[in-house]
Amino acid sequence: MSTSDDRPWISSYADGVPPDLPLPDAPVTAALARAAAEHPSRVATDFMGAVTTYGALQRRVDRAAGALHSLGVRPGDRVALVLPNSATHVVAFYAVLRLGAVVVEHNPTYTSDELAHQLADSGAVVALCWEKAVAPVLEALPRTAVRTVVAIDLSADLPAIKRVALQLPVAAARRTRASMRSRVPRDAGVLRWDRLVRRARPLPAGHPHPEVEDVALLQYTGGTTGTPKGAVLRHRHLAVNAAQGQAWTQHGEATETVYAALPFFHAFGLTLCLTYAVRIAATVVVFPRFDVDTVLAAQRRRPATFMPGVPPMFERLAEAAERTGADLTSITGAISGAMALPAETARRWETVTGGLLVEGYGMTETSPVALGSPMSADRRPGTLGLPFPSTTIRVVDPEDPTREVPRGERGELLISGPQVFDGYWNRPEESAATLVEIDGRTWIRTGDVVVVEEDEFVRLVDRIKEVIITGGFNVYPSQVEEHLRAMPEIQDVAVIGVPGGDLGEKVVAAVVLAEGATRVEMAAVRAWSEQRLARYAHPRELVVMAELPRSQIGKVLRRVVREQVLSRRGATDHQDENQPTPGP
Q1: Can you give the pLDDT at residue 281?
Q2: Does the global pTM surpass 0.90?
Q3: Which domains does the chain have, with CATH numbers?
């Protein structure tokens, strides 16, 4: 065990946060069983007003597990979930785990080709899909080991009055029905979830439980930089990260209402809204997707106390609260992840809520949270914060991970802790390149460039793979973006490198104009850059875009931006520093 001497950041922890936690001795499903036994009448999920208590949730999970067992699902089998957030998603997740089988989460909006790769790679034998995902799954089927496809009608999770309203012959009802439901081919052998579960017997209480060392989840990652690969997460990884989260927030049991607007199929949403929330017996208000009006309506009905999210969510909700007077003051804590949290967004959110908004850092391979800003007045917007309990970090030379860089210098972040995964599914070479043994510990190479500041807070500089090398100098896109984003004419920006002849790469800024702006001059961008950026980091080309491509949770996809810029280099909506500025 490390001591405070080699973990100096422990002295900056919020009061009451322990430096270390015991390793879990029970699977993830034990948290649900405990919540159901100790808080059976507490509301576990609220989906658009339809509530399920913890006692009822456990009964639904037992029956669903019995249904899956009747399909031949056994310990170690992979079961694909191709579902948006819903009450049934929660049930299916815990039912698969209860059997000792492995959950494989998928983005429900994926194409058949994207699904085919992941389904084939995982070897999933059963796919539980919402109706809209059935067609692409069926199209992918011949390339996979899937033997059973089960269709799920998400509208069945709605309150009875809303289910009846969907049948009304009005445009609004038709639109809502179309967004939730789809026709399922009758001759394709697809089973119906509601019928399957209704006919099933609950799994007997004496059925063997999974072991803490059993694989619980294959979470696919790497889609923005290459072919997605499955991170292998065991019950102990998920259980310990939920425990670390509770130690960090110091939430009590059965006291919190958590808003689940992050997708469950993403590691951030899965941990904070499925495993962490159940560990603390929280009421989870489930949203099928993030929508400001829907969140505000839920806030009036069942006010949140804790909200995980991404910066655009907090920005849009804060703006709506300022504009409409919506009361968000019940939200005493929020955690932002997946991308940098602008200091202005944090300030604005804390002003309208009166609560804290802190930044967290992690990756799918760390289950996912590894660092966070303290949930206290000592939070530091704009930094990744401090390592979690039982977690250690190193900042090293990217070319030689055994050599630590001097404090204050940029280097690659390495993380060691009980939440660090064991490797990628059937990818031994990539696992070996990501996990390294140093001083008798296993470390994960994050690929992120960071600086540890004097007060031990870690600041992200950029992704190693996205660093732009121009004229022999390293340009860190996020630093250029942060500066340009403050320019009055610019609402948002993504900085990328494109082939630049003798320079190696040329710095290009893809910008979205601020509301009311009709153009932005290259000369003005250059003058703005000179205030804080070295000359080699100045954008050499400017591309105006209507919007920036983003992932499902809102992260800007620089790789896609680069592809789009390269495909339109001859268009008139970009400016080179040596070209005249086009008209509006």
Answers
A1: 98
A2: no
A3: 1-27+235-465 (3.40.50.12780), 53-210 (3.40.50.980), 467-576 (3.30.300.30)
